[in-house]
Specification:
about 425 residues, alpha+beta, 5-stranded mixed beta sheet, 4-stranded antiparallel beta sheet
Length: about 425
């Protein structure tokens, strides 16, 4: 939320000495902008791991992608609060954490603040209606003579740390604004708007981002407070969440960020805490499954994916990750079922790539090529769609056309290691 992240991990699963093309995506929440970034490949259906390497036969092509998705607002039917109150006092937070089998000493309450922040809020809000006070506080967070908050796509922090660092993603901003407002008696809560996720490749990860905002509820509606004021009147489908869900999103994003950094043990811990705080938060279960697969715990990954799909049966990312896992294990029937279910959910680029990989595995490069080309037409900025086209063209014996696709990939990303290696292999074969 504030920037969920979904990671796609493509790792080759060899069968009889031949590498398979698999596109896998893991859902991991990473608070980023108002949106979450997503990219070309995803894991799959009900049981799926979080890794995968694709080796393009004849091209020596390798790619690993991982997607972390914060709170997938549009994909998750976020239930309204488990708690009846909008906020939790420190003692209540500790009690609720213990009730869920967690140690409060090991978890940060993201909304906890000290006297410094409360005094700063008091100095700013002044007199007037609650809405007028909230608007002054909102302005203070961005004004040159105020906090001068700077948006960063990656960086989920507690209220105290956001205030100290003066930066963060939309989740960080929302947490800080709610905490400061409540410290002076102004009622705010978090909400998840319905937005179209955006997709971005970060290193070897595919990042999918959604959004989170603060809302002031009143008779007949709610006023929205966003880190980008221009968005406030355009947001629709607001789903209020309670503080435990907000805490789970915070932990989910920390898990996603740890995953982006390659710190799998830390990612696993954060995500386990997230699902304990909010058992109905499907993206955290999906992200945990991706991490567990990368840790080699396939049984745990399957359980996490099943849990996620039990909450959100139409989660395209989890269905793809599941299909990818099945395919990597040679369980083709289950992979087909997962792909079919994901196909009903939508036709995102990563889904088309996964379906194409399956056709390649079945020895049907022409069918795969049609799917890859659809992905390339729909998302021409994604390097991997062009690399996939190159792989299929080479399988059909069309080296010249394959070269064009590889060169297109290099135009988009000149230092892409997979594309460089593919072109070198093509050049070597031509010289022979």
């Amino acid at each position: 939320v504030g920037g969920a992240v979904v990671g796609i991990d493509r790792r080759g699963a060899g069968t009889q000495g031949e590498s398979l093309g698999l596109h896998e995506v893991a859902i991991v929440a990473l608070a980023r902008t108002c949106t979450i970034r997503l990219s070309p490949h995803v894991e799959g259906l009900i049981e799926l791991p979080g890794r995968y390497t694709q080796v393009m036969k004849g091209l020596g092509y390798r790619a690993a992608f991982l997607v972390a998705s914060a709170c997938l607002v549009s994909a998750v039917a976020c239930s309204t609060a488990t708690l009846k109150r909008h906020g939790l006092e420190a003692v209540s937070w500790e009690q609720e954490v213990r009730r869920r089998g967690l140690d409060p000493a090991t978890l940060t309450d993201p909304l906890a603040i000290g006297d410094e922040l409360r005094e700063a809020a008091l100095a700013v809000v002044g007199s007037g209606s609650e809405l007028e006070k909230l608007r002054r506080l909102h302005g203070f967070l961005f004004d040159e003579d105020g906090l001068r908050f700077e948006y960063r796509s990656i960086g989920t922090y507690s209220a105290a740390d956001t205030y100290r660092l003066r930066r963060g993603n939309c989740a960080s901003f929302t947490i800080l604004f709610i905490a400061m407002a409540r410290s002076v008696g102004l009622p705010l809560r978090a909400a998840l708007p319905r937005v179209i996720p955006t997709v971005e490749k970060v290193g070897d990860l595919i990042v999918v981002s959604d959004h989170i905002v603060a809302i002031y509820e009143r008779t007949g509606g709610a006023d929205v407070f966003d880190f980008a004021p221009s968005n406030e009147k355009r947001l629709v489908g607001l789903r209020p969440i309670d503080d435990l869900w907000l805490g789970a999103i915070y932990l989910n994003n920390l898990g996603a960020e740890a995953l982006l950094e390659g710190n799998l043990p830390s990612a696993s811990t954060h995500l386990r805490h997230a699902v304990a705080l909010a058992p109905d938060f499907a993206p955290a279960h999906g992200n945990l499954g991706a991490v567990l697969r990368r840790l080699g715990d396939l049984d745990g990954a399957f359980r996490a994916y099943r849990q996620s799909l039990g909450i959100d049966p139409q989660s395209e990312t989890v269905l793809h990750n599941l299909a990818s896992l099945y395919l990597s294990l040679g369980r083709l029937s289950e992979a087909r079922t997962a792909i079919a279910a994901a196909d009903r959910a939508g036709c995102a680029p990563y889904m088309l790539l996964l379906r194409g990989d399956f056709e390649m595995r079945d020895g049907k490069p022409r069918r795969a090529l049609r799917l890859y080309r659809r992905a390339a037409r729909g998302s021409p900025q994604l390097v991997d769609t062009h690399l996939a086209v190159g792989r299929a063209e080479l399988a059909r014996g069309r080296a010249g056309t394959a070269r064009k696709s590889i060169l297109r990939a290099l135009d988009l990303e000149p230092d892409n290691a997979e594309a460089v290696a593919a072109l070198a292999r093509l050049d070597g074969a031509a010289r022979e």
